[in-house]
User: Fold these one by one.
Assistant:
Number 1:
Amino acid sequence: MIAKLDKFKSTPVVRFFRENNSIYILILVIIAACISASPKFTRPANIINLTQSIGTYGILAIGLTFIFLVGGIDLSLAYQVALDGTLFVLMCNSIGFFPALLITLVLGCCIGYMNGTIVTRLKIPSLIGTLAVMTSLKGLVLILNNDSSGRAVEATLFGERLSHFYNIKLFGFLTPSHIICIIFLVALGMFLKYKRDGINMYVVGGNPEAGLFSGINNDRLTRMAFTIGGFCASFCSILVVMRMNTSTYNMGDNLDIIAICSVVVGGVKMQGGKGNMAMCIMGVATIQIINNVMTKLGMRTAMQALITGIVVILVLILDKITSNIKANNA
Amino acid sequence: MRPLIELQNITKQFPGVLALDKVSFTLERGEIHALCGENGAGKSTLIKVMTGAHEMDKGEYIFDGDSVHFKSTHEGINRGVSCVYQELSIVPEQDVAKNLFIGNLPMKGSIIDYKKLYSESKKILNELGMDVSPKSLAGDLSVGQQQMIEIGRALTRNARCIIMDEPTSSLSESETDTLLKIIFMLKKKDIAIVYISHKLDEVMHLSDRITVIRDGQNIVTVNKNEITEEELIANMIGRNLENMYNKKEVTPGKSVLEVNNLSSKDLFNNISFSVRAGEIVGFFGLVGAGRSEIMRAIFGADKYNSGEVIMNSNKLRKGSPSKSIKAGIGFCTEDRKKEGLMLQLSILMNMTIVKLKELTFLGVIKKSKQQEITNHYIDSIRIKTPSANQKTGNLSGGNQQKVVLAKWLMMNPDLLIIDEPTRGIDIGAKAEIYTLLGELAKQGMAIIVVSSEIEEVMGLSDKVITIHEGDKTAEFNMKDDPSREQILTAALGAENI
């Protein structure tokens, strides 16, 4: 009996589930539930729409994953998206698309690097440091979006060209946000697995002391992670702007919560040292699928927020239970 | 040939403290050199200068014939000086191979060479005699295995000198034996070892030479066979220590604790024993034998499946530490930093935190009373500190342990359970803790001491109970004068006791 059980446990499929987060089982259950709950869910248009938003938010979550990996947190990411987006729209309207794109991406890196510097050089805990940055960025976004009388205005992109670009479909289903997100996932996933700096990031988050005594420059890697976070935020902002064809002063609202929930649900450890691109994107997918189907069912936003919160807690409980089982089996 | 490391007249000043005062130290190639001294004697500072974690103020550091001045541990590592620290530096979520090659990953161009990483790791694990897959998570290993990983790490860096700071403080006897074997193996490979340990029997067994430092100064460097353990102790503390255990004759009183057939699935089975007032009962067994788990169950920190715990003839409810405390049980845990102390807070706060309820008037803490009671305990159990407001994190290990003790003594327990009372504590402080426990027993307190040091258990206890893989294997009355071997065999679970 026990031998049989052990044999069962060592089959590749079961081992995969045992060694990875319970999220993979959960996501299958959720997808099944969604299909049965709403027939609209499986329509091609909805699937493309859904995966597009997974791609867009996924990029932000990828950035956050890096920051979590080194044991930090960046609360300002959402308002980096808002600021980058606003400036991108303003610049697009004045100096043209490509210069604007370039400047926005550089700006994203700069803000991320600045956050990293605040954390490593000034030794301010990232929770506090980025909270201050978040507040400042929020203010800055409001100032940029106000006209002379202080009324909030929305900067609109020139023409419809960009939103058209957002919906270009390669082979009938691959849109730019899909492609960009996949490139990010693959490139940064390879970075984490095959580059020295990537693996050392796990050390920085998992046991900084060990890093220090092994000659790893913890501070440099922390700054690098925050810079990657800022870069991802700027890419995300461009996709969000393209989709809406405009930037609004409140486009960053809730993005931080969505990103944090997604990444945590995926199994990335907030304390650092554990996580990868697969966990990150699985978490994003879970949250986006749930939101999508709730919208399709016509639920109120308040209700959606409530349910999303409950799902996050349930996933964390499930993860706790499965990791206990794993510990007992070890 | 010149020695591998020559330190000449090293001086290191910290604000307010002269940590090293013209210390000299030589390390020959392939020798095992023990460094002894009490906590705060300057051992740690000396090894930090050797590794490059601290820069020396004055003096000369000659490594392999070159005068060097390491500005970081990285520079030290590159020259071949590696250190295995007391606090483990394992990255738990990463696999064994990556932990071995931390900061030194094998590369193929600019990409990590996984094939080489795992094959090299396998080689090193074999060398260390470890039956562990390089792909298993480091966090899943036992503490002893993690320690081996640290040593393996030094090997991956082609270390020519490995400094080991209290490597056996958290190892069981069998793990310690393995470690000692590995140290001899390293010696054969012409790697020099600096060995720091409070366990003098290990030092005497292992080392070729011994250097004693005290108060930041060299006291003596001798060959092992030129010194006895007593002389070594005398050199370390600067005076003679007569009887460490200083046991007083106590006639045990009425039975305080009765444990009947206590069992918990997979952890321990059918444990029965009793403790009487004024009696010290020692629990001896290997790390992981279930000693601590039994104590946690008695205290109510963990649940158990069957059996009963009777305290002062009342049956204790299971799984409720607060009920147990009320019934008169005090429990000093094994890991004082993790479970017993808040290092950021003052001695005062740490001591009185369990007693705050009694120190308040209308919900407001009576500061003067709090101060008074803390000072009383600081005096009575001789905690060395400038004031009651000192941060606990700044105290030495021995004094921290005393703070934990004081916290429980304030509750006036009838039974004190103390798990590994002297782990990581220097020899002078050890003797003081032993004296203190003896005095408490004399006042009529029942005490259970859990320890993996056999001398400690034998020296302190009136009764020794051995635990092997969750079973009670024997109970010795120390009046019958059982031998060390008898107790060890029982703890190892061998038959025919």
Note: DSSP finds 17 helices and 24 strands in chain B.
Number 2:
Amino acid sequence: MNKLKTNATLFIQPILAVIVGLLVGTIAIMLSGESVAVTYQEMWKGAFGNLYFLTNTLERAIPIILAGLGVAFAFRAGFFNLGAEGQLVMGAVTTAIITVSLPFQGLLNMIISIVAGMLIAGLYSFFAGWMEQRFQINLLISTLLLNYIAVLFAGYLVSEPFRDTSSAGGVPQTVMVDQASRLPKLITGMNLHYGFVIAIILAIVIAFIMKRTTFGYEVKMLGQNVFFAQYGGINRKKTMFISLLISGMLAGLAGSVEVLGMHYRFIEGALSNPQFAWTGLMAALLANSNPVGTTIVAIFLAALDTGSLGVERNTDVPNSISGIIQAVLILFISAKFSFEFLKQRKKEGK
Amino acid sequence: MLLELKGITKKYGDFTANDHIDFSLNKQEIHAIVGENGAGKTTLMRMLYGMEKPTSGEIVIAGKSKTIDNPNDAIALGIGMVHQHFMLFPPFTIAENVVFHHEPRKSWRYDRKKAAEEVSQLAKKFGMNIDPLQIVGDAPVGIQQRVEILKVLYQGADVIILDEPTAVLTPLEVKDLLASLRELVKMGKSIILITHKLNEVMAVSDRVTVLRDGKVTGTLETRETNPEELSRLMVGRELKNNPLPEKVKGKEVLSIKNVSMTDKDSGKSLLENISFQVQQGEIVGIAGVSGNGQSELIQAITGLASVQNGSVTLNGTELTNQSVKQIREAGLAHIPEDRYLWGAAKEASLVDNMMMTDYVKQEFQKSGVLKLKNIRKYVTDSIKKFNVKTTSIDTSAQFLSGGNLQKLIAAREIQKNTPFLLAAEPTRGVDIGAMEFIHEQLIEKRNNGDAVLLISSELSEILALSDRVLVMYEGKIAGEFERNEASEEKLSILMAGGRNE
């Protein structure tokens, strides 16, 4: 009973945030002079209107879910990993290069290139943890700045040594992934691929780890109170490194499956421009780092994106409408943070 | 009658913190308010000081009904409050702290000289010996408290409310403070003293009002009552007396040899050459004013900080500078000195808080997967056994009262059944009921043949429970007593840095 109640209060805040976000969106639509009903209808159609749009939305949600899970995991352990974008790009470019470099194609190629992508991304995030441990470099800063390095470095790799030279000019990109080594589509003719299944399974696995395993307990306690964790004999260093590694691997996987399931190559900017990682971060924050919640919110945020594309196609409202709604959501999350901070201060002041 | 509270009631939602409280204060009287934590003492005083508003009831000052909306109103009516936690600016001088917000001026400028003069005169008038130009941060705690009182006096208070003023003081400082309070009363002030220490009440007050569960259970003339009657009124029943049975000599469990610790940054010595043993079936008490190396000693024993010199042996295993995990596995249980910092995760559930270090036991996990059913049963049983009051084991720890959380921590550590228990300030800030219960548990552990190291700044606790007492002063062991030799006087002198001849 009591558990139900606390669960309910957990969900009220994000739902409220979404409702207010849509309300502010309404005002923005009215300002642009379109009918609110028509616009939201178009948004709905663009996101879920038919099988094509629905699967499109779900496909877009894949990297957001995976990156979101990664952020959520580190956050649970008390570490703010702002480097999901860099890790995602590192994972993607590694997978794209490995898959075309291996002498064989097929399932094994796919597995090796995905694992390699995850490993590199995991190590990239691990590196930030190491710098924190060794030189006391704040994780927030290091993970954030490592993003730029990753994006530019990947850009260099595909512009110079690994550029697909068969097509002259255009955007720098790697060589096409072989048919046999691609992640298959879930439904023929649609964009949705097996990455979605992987994402859902991982959401469940992460939820299980957090709730039901001793490692999840250690991560949770470390995130809640470092001193209590140390007092109980939990090794902070070890737990930090493992959770940062897992966090980075999940973000890297987001990039790898996009490469093997959607683009079939690494295209410069194709993974960083749509802000998958940042949307994932937002999903994790909105869902309070709950893995299942993160997945649901990630799909909702993906729907906002694809829906607003639909709006732009069929009305005069620009697709920035999705940006406006998301901005309000962010405002609400930060409001929640400062609200809790104030509550805390008040209690201590007493 | 200087001040009267009539039928004061304060409700927070369904919860009644104060229920029709009647209270009065005569001129030049010290009126003590006693009661367990959560009995409503502080709530009542917050209303008198304008920090809370009563739901119903009347505040009468000098015969006139008044409403007090904020502390400024209270100060204007001559009511001042000294809070439990000092509200001072450590880098500023005593004079600057005292005159703050009421500074003497020379046209538009702050008059530094006049401030010092005024404060010096005020202190002299009330028989306090302070240097107005001393920096507050450099002054000992006893002086800082005097500064708080001077601040209130400077604001022109006739009624001074003191909230648990002796919690942070050494026994000698307590004596000084009580003498100062008497002096203040002689000079025409009236004092409300909130406390839960009955010996102080008996020593200094004229009348006592006892609160329990938000109600007045008695207002008594101090000279017509005794501590037993007061504690009965506070708790609502007779307190049990727990005599320590004769100890049976056992083998050594904890052995500390020549342990030293220095601060890495400042090079200051924190622990100097500490050596002692704790045997099976005994409670060794370490007395001392907080901040004399007890925290460092705890960290050295439990592996939370490393030592530069010496050795720590537990149950025959050498554990100097080993990890917390290794030390715990060798047989350490540890009730930490600060339950919110070290002892619990506030937002986590009672289940999570209860399982710390136990979650790896065979009973509760199999290859890393938690056995939730066993865990929930164990937590439910423990909570029942240790009488932790909560609505559910899934509520987060922050909703437990201090005493209940402390019982939860005691349950967690005592039930580990380790050969050694380190209990640091096990009853700090908990009510008498919880204190009695935790003391019983510690004695039971001792009687079962385990070793207990009790570190406490509360002398009465040390004297009641310890087979042997060590005194810590400035990072050193200043003395050792057998149970029958130890007395409050002897310990107090060593705690303050003095010597027994």
Note: The interface with chain B takes residues 1-3, 6, 212-215, 217, 220-221, 224-225, 227-235 of chain A (CB under 8 Å).
